Amino acid sequence: MKYDFDEIVPREGTDSFKLKYVGEICGHTDVLPMWVADMDFRTPPFVIKALEKRVHQGILGYTCTHDRYYDSICSWCKKQYDMDVTPEMVNYIPGVVSGILLAVQTFTDKGDKILIQQPVYHPFRLVPQATGREVVMSPLRRTATSFEMDFEQLRKDIKGCRMMILCNPHNPAGICWSKEDLQTVAHICAEEGVIVVSDEIHCDMVLHGRRHIPFATVSEEARMNSITLHAPTKVFNMPGIVASHAIVFNPEIRKRYFGFIQGTDQDAGNVFAYDCVAACYSEEGDEWRKEMLAYVAENIDLLCSRLAEECPGITPIRPEASFLVFLDCRELMKTKGMEKQEDLICFFATKAHLALNSGDMFGSLGTGYMRMNLACPHSVLNKAIDQMVEAVKQ
Predict the structure, then answer these.
(1) Mind spelling out the 3-state secondary structure of 73-107?
(2) How far apart (Å, rounded) are the C-alpha atoms in residues 176 and 317?
(3) Peptide linkage before 139 cis (omega within 30 of 0)
(4) According to the model, what pLDDT value does residue 394 have?
Protein backbone atom coordinates (compact mmCIF):
# COMPACT_ATOMS: atom_id res chain seq x y z
CA MET A 1 0.00 0.00 0.00
CA LYS A 2 1.06 3.58 -0.68
CA TYR A 3 -0.41 4.81 2.62
CA ASP A 4 0.36 3.59 6.15
CA PHE A 5 -2.82 2.69 8.02
CA ASP A 6 -0.92 0.70 10.66
CA GLU A 7 0.50 3.88 12.19
CA ILE A 8 -0.66 4.76 15.70
CA VAL A 9 -1.41 8.48 15.59
CA PRO A 10 -1.43 10.07 19.09
CA ARG A 11 -4.53 12.18 19.70
CA GLU A 12 -3.97 13.13 23.32
CA GLY A 13 -3.88 16.90 23.76
CA THR A 14 -5.65 17.56 20.46
CA ASP A 15 -9.11 18.25 21.95
CA SER A 16 -10.38 15.09 20.25
CA PHE A 17 -14.10 14.61 20.86
CA LYS A 18 -13.51 10.86 20.90
CA LEU A 19 -11.13 11.16 23.85
CA LYS A 20 -12.55 14.17 25.67
CA TYR A 21 -15.98 12.69 26.42
CA VAL A 22 -15.08 9.03 26.83
CA GLY A 23 -15.21 9.37 30.61
CA GLU A 24 -18.78 10.61 30.44
CA ILE A 25 -20.03 7.59 28.50
CA CYS A 26 -17.97 4.97 30.35
CA GLY A 27 -17.49 6.43 33.81
CA HIS A 28 -13.71 6.13 33.47
CA THR A 29 -11.02 6.69 30.86
CA ASP A 30 -9.20 3.36 30.94
CA VAL A 31 -10.84 2.27 27.68
CA LEU A 32 -10.16 2.05 23.97
CA PRO A 33 -12.29 4.76 22.29
CA MET A 34 -14.09 3.05 19.41
CA TRP A 35 -17.31 5.03 19.34
CA VAL A 36 -17.32 8.43 17.56
CA ALA A 37 -17.41 7.98 13.77
CA ASP A 38 -14.08 9.45 12.84
CA MET A 39 -10.97 7.49 11.94
CA ASP A 40 -7.73 6.83 13.77
CA PHE A 41 -5.92 7.12 10.42
CA ARG A 42 -4.12 10.30 9.43
CA THR A 43 -6.17 12.69 7.35
CA PRO A 44 -4.92 12.20 3.75
CA PRO A 45 -1.86 14.23 2.71
CA PHE A 46 -3.67 15.92 -0.19
CA VAL A 47 -6.14 17.40 2.30
CA ILE A 48 -3.30 18.67 4.49
CA LYS A 49 -1.62 20.12 1.40
CA ALA A 50 -4.80 21.99 0.42
CA LEU A 51 -5.05 23.41 3.96
CA GLU A 52 -1.41 24.48 3.98
CA LYS A 53 -1.74 26.22 0.63
CA ARG A 54 -4.72 28.22 1.85
CA VAL A 55 -3.07 29.09 5.18
CA HIS A 56 0.10 30.30 3.47
CA GLN A 57 -1.89 32.90 1.56
CA GLY A 58 -1.78 34.83 4.80
CA ILE A 59 -5.38 36.05 5.06
CA LEU A 60 -8.25 33.76 6.04
CA GLY A 61 -10.98 36.05 4.78
CA TYR A 62 -14.45 35.43 3.43
CA THR A 63 -14.03 32.84 0.70
CA CYS A 64 -16.28 32.06 -2.26
CA THR A 65 -17.08 28.77 -3.90
CA HIS A 66 -15.07 28.20 -7.06
CA ASP A 67 -15.37 26.18 -10.24
CA ARG A 68 -13.03 23.48 -8.92
CA TYR A 69 -15.45 22.86 -6.06
CA TYR A 70 -18.50 22.35 -8.29
CA ASP A 71 -16.59 20.52 -11.02
CA SER A 72 -15.12 18.06 -8.53
CA ILE A 73 -18.55 17.23 -7.07
CA CYS A 74 -20.19 16.82 -10.48
CA SER A 75 -17.38 14.69 -11.91
CA TRP A 76 -17.25 12.51 -8.77
CA CYS A 77 -21.00 11.84 -8.92
CA LYS A 78 -20.74 10.90 -12.58
CA LYS A 79 -17.68 8.68 -12.19
CA GLN A 80 -18.74 6.89 -9.02
CA TYR A 81 -22.52 6.65 -9.45
CA ASP A 82 -23.29 7.57 -13.07
CA MET A 83 -25.27 10.44 -11.56
CA ASP A 84 -25.59 13.48 -13.84
CA VAL A 85 -25.27 16.56 -11.65
CA THR A 86 -24.77 20.16 -12.79
CA PRO A 87 -23.42 23.04 -10.64
CA GLU A 88 -26.81 24.72 -10.22
CA MET A 89 -28.08 21.53 -8.54
CA VAL A 90 -25.42 21.77 -5.82
CA ASN A 91 -25.41 23.95 -2.72
CA TYR A 92 -22.99 24.03 0.19
CA ILE A 93 -24.49 23.17 3.58
CA PRO A 94 -22.84 23.41 7.01
CA GLY A 95 -22.92 19.67 7.70
CA VAL A 96 -25.31 16.87 6.76
CA VAL A 97 -27.22 17.13 10.04
CA SER A 98 -27.58 20.87 9.43
CA GLY A 99 -28.83 20.03 5.95
CA ILE A 100 -31.52 17.87 7.52
CA LEU A 101 -32.43 20.71 9.90
CA LEU A 102 -32.68 23.19 7.02
CA ALA A 103 -34.90 20.80 5.05
CA VAL A 104 -37.14 20.29 8.09
CA GLN A 105 -37.46 24.05 8.50
CA THR A 106 -38.11 24.63 4.81
CA PHE A 107 -40.73 21.97 4.10
CA THR A 108 -42.50 21.28 7.41
CA ASP A 109 -44.15 23.17 10.24
CA LYS A 110 -44.27 22.60 13.98
CA GLY A 111 -46.45 19.62 14.79
CA ASP A 112 -45.92 17.97 11.40
CA LYS A 113 -44.99 14.30 11.27
CA ILE A 114 -41.59 13.18 9.98
CA LEU A 115 -40.88 9.49 9.41
CA ILE A 116 -37.59 7.73 10.11
CA GLN A 117 -36.76 4.02 9.98
CA GLN A 118 -35.28 2.75 13.23
CA PRO A 119 -32.76 1.69 14.27
CA VAL A 120 -31.07 4.67 12.62
CA TYR A 121 -28.61 7.51 13.16
CA HIS A 122 -29.93 9.36 16.20
CA PRO A 123 -29.93 12.98 14.84
CA PHE A 124 -32.71 11.83 12.49
CA ARG A 125 -34.84 11.79 15.63
CA LEU A 126 -33.23 14.59 17.61
CA VAL A 127 -33.39 17.28 14.91
CA PRO A 128 -37.15 17.05 14.23
CA GLN A 129 -37.90 16.77 17.94
CA ALA A 130 -35.81 19.85 18.71
CA THR A 131 -37.84 21.85 16.19
CA GLY A 132 -41.24 20.78 17.49
CA ARG A 133 -42.04 18.15 14.88
CA GLU A 134 -43.49 14.72 15.64
CA VAL A 135 -41.20 11.80 14.82
CA VAL A 136 -42.77 8.60 13.50
CA MET A 137 -40.40 5.69 14.27
CA SER A 138 -41.21 3.18 11.55
CA PRO A 139 -39.33 -0.07 12.29
CA LEU A 140 -37.08 -1.98 9.97
CA ARG A 141 -37.50 -5.76 10.08
CA ARG A 142 -34.77 -7.94 11.59
CA THR A 143 -33.49 -10.73 9.36
CA ALA A 144 -31.11 -13.58 10.17
CA THR A 145 -28.09 -11.44 9.30
CA SER A 146 -29.18 -7.79 9.22
CA PHE A 147 -32.28 -5.59 8.78
CA GLU A 148 -34.60 -5.03 5.82
CA MET A 149 -37.38 -2.66 4.78
CA ASP A 150 -40.84 -3.50 6.10
CA PHE A 151 -42.99 -1.95 3.37
CA GLU A 152 -46.31 -3.05 4.83
CA GLN A 153 -45.45 -1.21 8.03
CA LEU A 154 -44.03 1.74 6.10
CA ARG A 155 -47.27 2.19 4.16
CA LYS A 156 -49.16 2.38 7.44
CA ASP A 157 -46.73 4.68 9.21
CA ILE A 158 -46.27 7.14 6.32
CA LYS A 159 -49.91 8.23 6.47
CA GLY A 160 -50.11 11.88 7.49
CA CYS A 161 -46.36 12.48 7.34
CA ARG A 162 -44.80 15.43 5.52
CA MET A 163 -41.22 14.16 5.23
CA MET A 164 -39.19 10.97 5.34
CA ILE A 165 -35.50 11.01 6.31
CA LEU A 166 -33.77 8.09 4.61
CA CYS A 167 -30.36 6.69 5.56
CA ASN A 168 -28.71 5.40 2.35
CA PRO A 169 -26.40 3.56 3.02
CA HIS A 170 -27.80 2.74 6.41
CA ASN A 171 -26.16 3.72 9.68
CA PRO A 172 -25.65 1.75 11.95
CA ALA A 173 -26.29 -1.52 10.06
CA GLY A 174 -24.24 -0.60 6.98
CA ILE A 175 -26.90 -1.66 4.46
CA CYS A 176 -26.67 -0.66 0.79
CA TRP A 177 -30.35 -0.46 -0.13
CA SER A 178 -31.23 -2.11 -3.43
CA LYS A 179 -32.65 -0.25 -6.41
CA GLU A 180 -35.94 -2.09 -5.94
CA ASP A 181 -36.18 -1.10 -2.27
CA LEU A 182 -35.47 2.54 -3.09
CA GLN A 183 -37.99 2.54 -5.95
CA THR A 184 -40.66 1.25 -3.58
CA VAL A 185 -39.83 3.93 -1.02
CA ALA A 186 -39.98 6.58 -3.74
CA HIS A 187 -43.36 5.36 -4.98
CA ILE A 188 -44.90 5.18 -1.51
CA CYS A 189 -43.69 8.68 -0.64
CA ALA A 190 -44.78 10.16 -3.97
CA GLU A 191 -48.27 8.69 -3.54
CA GLU A 192 -48.54 10.19 -0.05
CA GLY A 193 -47.01 13.57 -0.95
CA VAL A 194 -44.03 12.99 1.36
CA ILE A 195 -40.70 14.57 0.42
CA VAL A 196 -37.61 12.37 0.96
CA VAL A 197 -34.36 13.67 2.45
CA SER A 198 -31.68 11.09 1.69
CA ASP A 199 -28.58 11.17 3.89
CA GLU A 200 -25.90 9.54 1.74
CA ILE A 201 -22.76 10.49 3.68
CA HIS A 202 -21.61 6.84 3.77
CA CYS A 203 -22.01 6.39 0.00
CA ASP A 204 -18.27 6.50 -0.73
CA MET A 205 -17.52 3.69 1.72
CA VAL A 206 -19.10 0.68 0.02
CA LEU A 207 -17.35 -2.65 0.63
CA HIS A 208 -17.02 -6.17 -0.74
CA GLY A 209 -17.79 -5.21 -4.34
CA ARG A 210 -21.11 -3.58 -3.51
CA ARG A 211 -22.27 -0.44 -5.30
CA HIS A 212 -24.05 2.55 -3.83
CA ILE A 213 -27.29 3.48 -5.57
CA PRO A 214 -28.27 7.14 -5.06
CA PHE A 215 -31.92 7.49 -4.16
CA ALA A 216 -32.50 10.22 -6.75
CA THR A 217 -31.40 7.93 -9.61
CA VAL A 218 -33.82 5.03 -9.14
CA SER A 219 -36.91 6.59 -10.74
CA GLU A 220 -38.42 9.85 -11.90
CA GLU A 221 -40.55 9.85 -8.73
CA ALA A 222 -37.38 9.73 -6.63
CA ARG A 223 -35.56 12.31 -8.74
CA MET A 224 -38.37 14.87 -8.51
CA ASN A 225 -39.28 14.35 -4.85
CA SER A 226 -36.00 14.29 -2.96
CA ILE A 227 -33.02 16.11 -1.49
CA THR A 228 -29.69 14.29 -1.45
CA LEU A 229 -27.08 15.14 1.20
CA HIS A 230 -23.41 14.32 0.57
CA ALA A 231 -20.05 15.04 2.21
CA PRO A 232 -16.47 13.83 1.76
CA THR A 233 -15.72 14.48 5.42
CA LYS A 234 -16.51 10.98 6.71
CA VAL A 235 -14.65 8.94 4.12
CA PHE A 236 -11.60 11.22 4.02
CA ASN A 237 -11.44 11.68 7.80
CA MET A 238 -11.88 15.42 8.02
CA PRO A 239 -15.15 15.88 9.95
CA GLY A 240 -13.58 18.88 11.68
CA ILE A 241 -13.74 20.62 8.30
CA VAL A 242 -17.42 21.42 7.83
CA ALA A 243 -17.80 20.61 4.13
CA SER A 244 -21.10 19.10 3.02
CA HIS A 245 -23.42 19.75 0.11
CA ALA A 246 -26.99 19.18 -1.02
CA ILE A 247 -28.00 17.98 -4.48
CA VAL A 248 -31.54 18.72 -5.70
CA PHE A 249 -32.88 17.88 -9.16
CA ASN A 250 -36.41 19.28 -8.91
CA PRO A 251 -36.25 23.02 -9.77
CA GLU A 252 -39.15 23.94 -7.46
CA ILE A 253 -37.76 22.06 -4.47
CA ARG A 254 -34.33 23.47 -5.27
CA LYS A 255 -35.63 27.04 -5.36
CA ARG A 256 -37.31 26.71 -1.97
CA TYR A 257 -34.52 24.78 -0.26
CA PHE A 258 -31.54 26.65 -1.65
CA GLY A 259 -33.42 29.91 -1.19
CA PHE A 260 -33.90 29.18 2.51
CA ILE A 261 -30.27 28.13 2.91
CA GLN A 262 -29.00 31.27 1.22
CA GLY A 263 -31.55 33.52 2.90
CA THR A 264 -30.47 32.33 6.35
CA ASP A 265 -26.77 32.70 5.44
CA GLN A 266 -26.11 28.99 5.84
CA ASP A 267 -24.28 28.59 2.53
CA ALA A 268 -21.18 30.59 3.47
CA GLY A 269 -18.67 27.80 3.83
CA ASN A 270 -15.54 28.12 5.91
CA VAL A 271 -12.32 29.20 4.23
CA PHE A 272 -10.96 25.64 3.99
CA ALA A 273 -14.05 23.74 2.89
CA TYR A 274 -14.07 24.22 -0.87
CA ASP A 275 -10.39 23.43 -1.42
CA CYS A 276 -10.63 20.28 0.72
CA VAL A 277 -13.64 18.99 -1.21
CA ALA A 278 -11.87 19.52 -4.53
CA ALA A 279 -8.77 17.75 -3.20
CA CYS A 280 -10.79 14.72 -2.03
CA TYR A 281 -12.88 14.33 -5.15
CA SER A 282 -9.85 13.68 -7.34
CA GLU A 283 -7.87 10.73 -8.73
CA GLU A 284 -5.52 10.95 -5.76
CA GLY A 285 -8.50 10.97 -3.42
CA ASP A 286 -10.00 7.93 -5.08
CA GLU A 287 -6.70 6.06 -4.73
CA TRP A 288 -6.51 6.84 -0.99
CA ARG A 289 -10.16 5.92 -0.52
CA LYS A 290 -9.74 2.52 -2.14
CA GLU A 291 -6.67 1.69 -0.05
CA MET A 292 -8.44 2.78 3.14
CA LEU A 293 -11.51 0.69 2.33
CA ALA A 294 -9.38 -2.37 1.59
CA TYR A 295 -7.74 -1.95 5.00
CA VAL A 296 -11.11 -1.50 6.75
CA ALA A 297 -12.47 -4.57 4.95
CA GLU A 298 -9.59 -6.56 6.47
CA ASN A 299 -10.61 -5.25 9.89
CA ILE A 300 -14.20 -6.34 9.31
CA ASP A 301 -13.06 -9.81 8.27
CA LEU A 302 -10.80 -9.99 11.32
CA LEU A 303 -13.60 -8.99 13.70
CA CYS A 304 -16.15 -11.38 12.19
CA SER A 305 -13.80 -14.37 12.10
CA ARG A 306 -12.37 -13.91 15.58
CA LEU A 307 -15.71 -13.29 17.27
CA ALA A 308 -17.28 -16.31 15.54
CA GLU A 309 -14.47 -18.49 16.85
CA GLU A 310 -13.72 -16.96 20.23
CA CYS A 311 -16.86 -15.06 21.25
CA PRO A 312 -19.98 -16.47 19.55
CA GLY A 313 -22.34 -14.57 21.86
CA ILE A 314 -21.47 -11.36 19.97
CA THR A 315 -22.47 -11.44 16.29
CA PRO A 316 -21.42 -8.54 14.05
CA ILE A 317 -23.74 -7.43 11.27
CA ARG A 318 -21.28 -7.43 8.38
CA PRO A 319 -21.61 -3.94 6.82
CA GLU A 320 -21.95 -3.46 3.09
CA ALA A 321 -20.78 0.12 3.55
CA SER A 322 -18.99 2.16 6.24
CA PHE A 323 -16.35 1.44 8.88
CA LEU A 324 -19.02 1.13 11.57
CA VAL A 325 -20.21 -2.31 12.70
CA PHE A 326 -23.43 -3.05 14.59
CA LEU A 327 -22.77 -5.80 17.15
CA ASP A 328 -25.69 -8.08 18.02
CA CYS A 329 -25.13 -8.85 21.71
CA ARG A 330 -28.53 -10.31 22.52
CA GLU A 331 -27.19 -13.85 22.94
CA LEU A 332 -24.42 -12.54 25.19
CA MET A 333 -27.01 -10.82 27.35
CA LYS A 334 -28.95 -14.07 27.72
CA THR A 335 -25.96 -16.19 28.65
CA LYS A 336 -24.57 -13.60 31.07
CA GLY A 337 -27.89 -12.76 32.70
CA MET A 338 -27.98 -9.15 31.54
CA GLU A 339 -31.50 -7.78 31.77
CA LYS A 340 -31.09 -4.18 30.59
CA GLN A 341 -29.14 -2.22 27.99
CA GLU A 342 -27.35 -0.51 30.87
CA ASP A 343 -25.91 -3.90 31.85
CA LEU A 344 -24.52 -4.32 28.34
CA ILE A 345 -23.02 -0.81 28.34
CA CYS A 346 -21.43 -1.52 31.72
CA PHE A 347 -20.03 -4.83 30.47
CA PHE A 348 -18.17 -3.20 27.59
CA ALA A 349 -17.06 -0.16 29.59
CA THR A 350 -15.89 -1.83 32.81
CA LYS A 351 -15.16 -5.43 31.81
CA ALA A 352 -13.96 -5.14 28.21
CA HIS A 353 -12.63 -1.59 28.66
CA LEU A 354 -14.12 -0.45 25.36
CA ALA A 355 -16.02 2.74 24.60
CA LEU A 356 -18.72 1.85 22.05
CA ASN A 357 -22.01 3.47 21.07
CA SER A 358 -25.03 1.95 22.78
CA GLY A 359 -27.45 0.47 20.26
CA ASP A 360 -30.56 1.95 21.87
CA MET A 361 -29.45 5.47 20.94
CA PHE A 362 -30.56 4.50 17.41
CA GLY A 363 -34.05 3.53 18.58
CA SER A 364 -35.68 0.81 20.65
CA LEU A 365 -34.83 -1.83 18.03
CA GLY A 366 -31.19 -1.17 18.85
CA THR A 367 -31.58 -2.60 22.33
CA GLY A 368 -29.18 -5.50 22.70
CA TYR A 369 -26.73 -3.99 20.20
CA MET A 370 -23.57 -1.89 20.35
CA ARG A 371 -21.91 0.06 17.52
CA MET A 372 -18.17 -0.29 17.01
CA ASN A 373 -15.81 1.88 14.92
CA LEU A 374 -13.28 -0.22 12.97
CA ALA A 375 -11.39 2.64 11.27
CA CYS A 376 -8.27 1.91 13.28
CA PRO A 377 -4.95 0.04 12.91
CA HIS A 378 -5.14 -3.76 12.91
CA SER A 379 -3.17 -3.83 16.16
CA VAL A 380 -5.78 -1.68 17.93
CA LEU A 381 -8.62 -3.88 16.72
CA ASN A 382 -6.85 -7.06 17.81
CA LYS A 383 -6.36 -5.55 21.25
CA ALA A 384 -10.04 -4.61 21.42
CA ILE A 385 -11.09 -8.16 20.46
CA ASP A 386 -8.68 -9.61 23.03
CA GLN A 387 -10.34 -7.46 25.68
CA MET A 388 -13.81 -8.53 24.58
CA VAL A 389 -12.92 -12.20 24.65
CA GLU A 390 -11.29 -11.92 28.06
CA ALA A 391 -14.29 -10.04 29.43
CA VAL A 392 -16.66 -12.77 28.25
CA LYS A 393 -14.47 -15.45 29.86
CA GLN A 394 -14.51 -13.60 33.17
Answers:
(1) HHHHHHHHHCCCCCHHHEEEECCHHHHHHHHHHHH
(2) 13
(3) no
(4) 87
The CA distances from residue 94 to 192, 246, 303, in Å, are: 30, 10, 34
Q: Of 272, 276, 294, whose CA–CA distance to 285 is shortest?
A: 276
Q: ∠ at Cα 244 (206, 225), nearest 5°?
A: 80
Q: What letter would DSSP give residue 237?
A: T
Mean pLDDT, residues 82-88: 98
Please state, in angstroms and rounded to a whole number, the distance separating the CA atoms of residues 4 and 25.
Answer: 31
* Torsion of the alpha carbons at 368, 374, 379 and 385, rounded to the nearest 10: 10
363 CB neighbour count, 10 Å cutoff? 22
H helical segments located in the chain: 17-20, 22-26, 45-55, 67-81, 96-107, 123-130, 151-157, 179-192, 220-223, 251-263, 273-280, 283-310, 330-335, 341-346, 378-393
pLDDT in tens, 159-192: 999 999 999 999 999 999 999 999 999 999 999 9
The confidence band for 115, taking pLDDT boundaries of 50, 70 and 90, is: very high
Residue 94's CB: how many other CB atoms inside 10 A?
Answer: 20
Q: Using the predicted structure, report yes or no on whether residue 312 has a pLDDT greater than 90.
A: yes
Find all residues with CB under 8 Å of 289, minimum gap 6, and list them. 204, 235, 236
Q: What mean pLDDT do residues 237-259 have? A: 97
Is 341 exposed, middle or buried, given 0-12, 13-18 or 19+ CB atoms closer than 10 A? Answer: buried
Residue 360 makes CB contacts below 8 A (sequence gap 6+) with 341, 366, 367, 369
Rounded (10°) angle between helices 96-107 and 251-263:
110
Instruction: Express each pLDDT in 63-79 by its tens digit.
Output: 999 999 999 999 999 99
What pLDDT was estimated at residue 208? Answer: 87
DSSP string for residues in 13-76? TTT-HHHHTHHHHHSSS-SEE--SSS-SSPPPHHHHHHHHHHHTTS--------HHHHHHHHHH
pLDDT at residue 27, rounded to an integer: 80
* Per-residue confidence (pLDDT) for residue 46, from 0 to 100: 98
Q: Which of 5, 9, 26, 20 is nearest to 370 (CA)?
A: 26
Mean pLDDT taken over the chain: 97
CB-based contact 76:281 (threshold 8 Å): yes
- Smallest CA-to-CA distance from 372 within 360, 359, 387 is with 359
